[in-house]
């Protein structure tokens, strides 16, 4: 699907939609609309989730879903979560390939992925202390 | 009744540490579970504490086998972030070294796969041919493995006329050898008996589980980032995407041998068309606030780098999604229905790279306490242990 098609398909769900470069588009979405938008994409044969990135912005955590919409078009779908409420619905039933990326988000940034089928540690050891998230900004502060 | 079979993290048949838990019923594997993280070095976090040029070398050390694709993708991401375009000659040189890397990686894999099948003669032959590519890499960069060729804004060393002649000569030899391997793998009874119909990944599973690279292409999914999202000089050097429909170990083997021919063609064309001019663009190490994503087709599949800058000389965040990480779920699927004797050959059929897969966070963990070493302490420590 071309990127105009994606824009039209997701028009009702998105807060922002910007073409940022050659084959690159950035979109901002609310957490409540995330699953509906991804379901709409999946129904239009968008199958490949390249990765999920989590970034600690200080007060909030930015989650980016890198979705390949076909023809090399990469949609970076962003969700912002305030640190007070880090709950996020799972998308593993829509994109089964997201299982590991969501586990990564949970252990590295402390995002609570609701409904994840296998919420174990992925890279960190089993005895890693709870509430210590290595990709958070405060992790380095504690170390100092 | 099922029985649990543990393999790894330390195991004679594993070249790198990883833990596998297989549920077996008699000889048949019914479920596989993979535990990652044994070679986790914390590179993503480490990148946030280092400058953009320093991170080129960090990216290069994520993986030994595919170090050039890591440094190239990192550099391309930062180039996009900073809005600079590498010169044409640099793009072509990158293409040539990237494809040389693919050939050496596929030959290396072919040897390991032959070894896992118990065909050690083929293993030695394939590694003998790989050595020719390593010699070329040494000739170009002075190093067999970590060549440090890429830099932000271009490449660090130029390709001379004598290099081109030698590369062309070696490519002819590799082409002949690859033809022979294709013939052996497509006809040898022992290989077919070990590979055909083993470790099947259906097209639907490959798509659902977001498989990448040769693993996806061997299940009939026509994806190749070089074609879809071209970088370096791939737009100007046409090639065919190799696809097989078997979805088994044999298909994954044939894909890699056939890809060697495509890589040879790409290098020949790039050498013919190699433009003249400078090889690097100036990069100012302070990057204004921006974001960039870059993808490339590593020998094992789609490699993704995401970078976010914050106006300083260090990145705010670098995210790396390596191909083996994306293929772990498909891997679990492939083991289902295999016999215990088939585990090693299925295990190596995705060309796994554990070092690539595990790398996000730093700090050693000792009974729940975190600690780290300063650069001086690290030097002292490395001097005392060497």
Describe, in plain words, how this protein is organized in 3D.
The complex is a heterodimer of chains A (about 140) and B (about 375). Helix content of chain A is about 25%, strand content about 35%. Chain A has helices at about 5-10, 30-45, 100-110, 135-144, and strands spanning about 15-20, 25-30, 50-55, 60-70, 75-80, 85-90, 110-115. In chain A, strands 1-2-5-4-3 form a 5-stranded mixed sheet. A two-stranded parallel sheet of chain A has the order 6-7. The longest helix of chain A is centred in the N-terminal third of the chain and has 13 residues, at about 30-45. With about 375 residues, chain B is an alpha+beta fold. Chain B has one domain (about 40-335): Cytochrome-c3 Hydrogenase, chain B (Orthogonal Bundle). In chain B, strand 4 and strand 5 form a beta hairpin. Chain B is globular and about 65 Å long. In chain B, about 50% of the residues are buried.
The major sheet of chain B is characterized as: 3 strands, antiparallel
Instruction: Return residue spans of chain B where pLDDT drops below 50 for at least 5 consecutive residues.
Output: 360-371
Taking the sheet with the most strands of chain A, its summary is:
5 strands, mixed
- Average of per-residue pLDDT values of chain A: 90
CATH homologous superfamily name of chain B? Cytochrome-c3 Hydrogenase, chain B
Radius of gyration of chain A, whole Å: 16 Å
Distance between the termini of chain A: 48 Å
Q: Quaternary status of these chains?
A: heterodimer
Lateral arrangement of strands in the main beta sheet of chain B: 1-2-3
In percent, how much strand structure appears in the residues of chain A? 25-35%
CATH architecture of chain B: Orthogonal Bundle
Number of individual domains of chain B? 1
Class of secondary structure makeup of chain B = alpha+beta
Broad shape of chain A = globular
Helix content of chain A: 25-40%
Q: How are the strands of the largest sheet of chain A arranged?
A: 1-2-5-4-3
